[in-house]
Amino acid sequence: MNFKLNTLILLLLVFLINSCSPKTSQKIDNTVEEVEEDLTQTADDAEEALDEAGEAISEEAEEAMEGMDQAAKTVVVEVDETMEMVEEGIEDLSEDPIPADDDVVIGSLANGMRYYIQSNQKPDDRAELRLIVDAGSMQEDDDQLGVAHFVEHMAFNGSKNFEKNELVDFLESIGTKFGPDLNAYTSFDETVYMLQVRTDSMELFDKGLLVLSDWANGISFDEEEIDKERGVVTSEWRTRLSGEQRMQKNYFPIMYHGSRYAERLPIGDPEIINNADYETIRRFYRDWYRPDLMAVAVVGDIDVKETEQKIKELFAPIPPATVKREKKDNVVPKHEETFVSINSDKEAAFTILRLMYKHDHIAVRTDRDYRESLVRQLYNRMLNNRLDEITKQAEPPFIFAYSGYGRDVGDLDTYTSFANVPEGKVESALEVLLTENERALRHGFNESELERQKIAMMENIKRQAKEQDKIDSRRLVTRYVYHYLRDNPIPSIDQQLEYYEEYLPTITVDEINRLAENWITPENRVIVVTAPKKEDVPLPSEEDLLAIVESIEEKEIEPYEDKVIDVPLFDEELDPVAIEEVEHFEEVDVKEFELANGVRVVMKPTDFKNDEILMTASSEGGTSLYDDADYFNASNAARIVNESGLGDFTTTDLEKLLTGKTVGVYPYIGTNFEGLSGSSAPKDLETLMQLIYMYFTDVRRDEQAFKSFINKQSNIYKNLMSNPQYYFMDYAMKKKTDNHPRVGFPSVDDIMSIDLDRALEIYNERFADASGFTFIFVGNFEEDRLKELAQKYLGNLPSKGMEETWKNRNIDYVEGEIKDEFKMGEAPKTQVELFFHGPFEWTPENSYHFNAMLDVLRIKMRESMREDKGGVYGVRVSGNASKIPEERYTITVSFNCDPENTEELITTAMQDVQNAVQSGAEEKDLTKVKETQRQSMIKNLKENNYWRSRLEYVYSNDLSPTTISLDKLEQSIHELDSDDIKDAASKYFGSGNYMRIVMQPGDQPSN
User: Fold this and answer.
1) pLDDT of amino acid 51
2) Residue among 656, 658, 692, 694 nearest 675 (CA)
3) Which run of H or E residues covers position 19?
């Protein structure tokens, strides 16, 4: 992937995950998939926990009604009568609890522990296990700050049935991957342990349940292990140190004024972690890990009755607490005045504005509550569409913005507006956020906006209903976690669909327009600003911001005008073209054919998802075909096109036009390839094809969209190098390539140098000839229908029959042994990167052995650097063996640590490398690697995303699809031995090309 593509999304996600969520202290080993699940769940929680709002009718509306003529009054009376009928219907809604999904068995043991069990076959032969503890950092005593999180760590370091590291060793030996399959998190109010186990063997499943029972009542707290883990937890604390973290410490006491949330961050106090006596740590476990505050959830390929019996046998004997400490409610006090917190830090990369209104939490428990939650969802969606539209202005007041009502911490709901703001534009951004809230308050929303969101929400729930037999167990078990912790409703998908079908049509725009008055209040309001500290860019004062708040009431604000799109997306007549002979690769059930214009189409039909088709397309060339002077035009061209719309439609027009469809297409121009990625539901396959056709033939020149893109990108990169993490990444990339102009983050000058017409010219050149493109489709499609649409749309893509390939731009790595050290950053931590590279003889076998060797090193370095020495929270071992543009490999080992331990940990990492060079892999580690690979392969082979990426790998490297057949993959794993690891380590760590880059804390470099 071109590092400079999608940086807006990348940087904002990194920022949001690292600094904007106070809820969890996640393990650094979490995979991208887990993060996506967490974000999805957070969104689900917010939707389910939305609050009820009251009635609001503006004085302007009342005056207007008084001046209406009789005919208009008649209409109003009719509308009022309709509203009365709706409200009477609402009065008849049941106050009974929302029924739980019939497929989940919920029970309680005599000791107070609850359990949830559901049979689910995705993935096959797997079960998701959770131990849920209704206690977190809010239950800590003053001498225990951070101990809740520390106890969570100790659960992996020895228990009644698994001594010391035996637990992780055992789980890895059966294919459980530390991080994706084995993890935990600690929050303010809860601690949750997560484990995926195999169910193809009841012995393995039973061991998984035994692990949960040990976590619940059998953690050892071995004193030697406690002392080693102090360093790991302190390293995790150190990892999080940053400008954002320092500012968070300042604004949390304002945001959660008067509550324990302001002083109980889960990461805790390192002084306490390093010095707390053993009894202090055990005391938290004894006080709060008790049956009446715990639940077990099991979802997967299991027999429910047998599992229920096993849970009773394992967990019922856990004795109830003889003395129960009171679990107090943690309330965030109300306040009349508006609190303001303005914060700056020299290492901050972004300017962030938060506007928060606090409210008591109202749960969703009854039919009435559920309907009201749908009303609030509609409000949130409509307002955020308006904010998104504003970001597309030529000079947008914010790069990204969100407003919505949802649950915050504990029993606190908030209506929050959040914006990533251009430097020096806090006042104007605040005014726009306040104005849009006030616009909704005074004038409400339009019928056309409401109808689009009803359609979108209905489409979404119908899609979930179609996929209900293919829902991953991880998503289901998460529902039960939050049912126990927060009493979130858990109706079945069919029940939810019934609610949507019954309630959505009855929701009126008037209901939604009455919400804002209860949400936007002068009391319980908080404004928080965080920004880079720069003398030449002063921040507004508290008085400045409060004056803007007060001025909004006097501001003249027009109603929102909704541009309704009532024209077809595509109306061009196309004749289908001929298909060459279809080739079938039966080992992998992949078919391939070529169209008359030279386009190659690859089909992999699956039933892994009922309502999903994934697409990717690529052709050789990319930015490599353009000189350095044109690099930024080329690397940003597809992103500019993507933000400009298609044909006569802006991106906002397209979003409105595609409401109710599940479809998306995104062009890209990478380093050596250009292409598109996309997806659709089967019913929207033709729309997917139409969008593909338009991205080749009908891109749009939009001056405003271009200016918006440039302004947003410039502001993203303006202060990026103030952040030590980003500075180190940029410095290391440039150091390794001797400052190659195509490597590293772009500067503001680089962004400003982009020329719209030249960028569009390059885009059109890259997509002017489809004859070199390979399109890959994976998912639930009818083959004949796909062929028919391919003949019509892909077969008519422009074709010149040119033979074109990438060009090697010689982004070479500096050879020899190099050591480089510099100082930057206020936080007391050292950042280390060890980099190895050299030539590579590219074959699938060599590539496999290369990656297997890295798998072994990941295990060894985690054990030596984290578990044995307690010196790091996580160590990252990554590598790439590439064929294009030349055959070579790179290996990177990176971590951060206490500056005093830098040399010792580098020596430890290098000793692990030498051990692999001299001895290969120990048998136990080889078993872990092979079994983890085997289990990952079994799961991956039933995922559309896996097949799409693997087929893209196959065709971009000019291989046969049979290369990735199950038999060949299994053969590779079976034949892997210690000598393969030894040979790979000797070869790839013996090139003599080694770079050591170290960033110590200190003053920022002048360059």
Assistant:
1) 28
2) 692
3) none
723-752 CB burial, b ≥16 within 10 A, e <16: bbbbbbbbbbbebbbeebebbbbbbbebbe
Q: What are phi and psi of 114, to 5 degrees?
A: -105, 160
Strand, coil or helix: what is 658?
Answer: coil
* pLDDT tens per residue, range 550-578: 999 999 999 999 999 889 999 999 999 99
d(CA 767, CA 772): 10
User: What's the CATH code, domain 583-723+735-796?
Assistant: 3.30.830.10
pLDDT reading at 302 higher than 60: yes
| Structure token digits, residue 918 | 């001299």
Q: Are 535 and 438 in contact (CB under 8 A)?
A: no
% of the chain exceeding 70 in pLDDT = 90
**435 CA to centre of own chain:** 30
**Domain 122-291 is found in CATH 3.40.1700.10:** no
d(CA 473, CA 471): 6
Q: Is the pLDDT of residue 679 over 90?
A: yes
SS3 672: coil
Contact 985, 810 (CB under 8 A): no
Mean pLDDT estimate for the chain:
90
Helical segments of 587-661, H only: 631-644, 651-657
Task: Identify the CATH number of the domain defined by range 817-1000.
Answer: 3.30.830.10
Element containing residue 668 per DSSP (H, E) = strand 663-669
Q: How much is the pTM?
A: 0.90
Asked whether 764 and 800 are in contact (CB, 8 A), the reply is no
Of 972, 973, 862, 927, nearest in space to 175 by CA: 927
Is 153:231 a contact under the CB 8 Å cutoff? Answer: no
How far is CA 139 from its chain centroid?
29
341 is written with which tokens? Answer: 């917190």
> What's the burial of 980, exposed, middle or buried (CB within 10 Å: 0-12/13-18/19+)?
buried
Residue ranges per domain, the chain? Answer: 59-91, 122-291, 334-554, 583-723+735-796, 817-1000
**Confidence band, pLDDT 50/70/90 cuts, at residue 94:** low
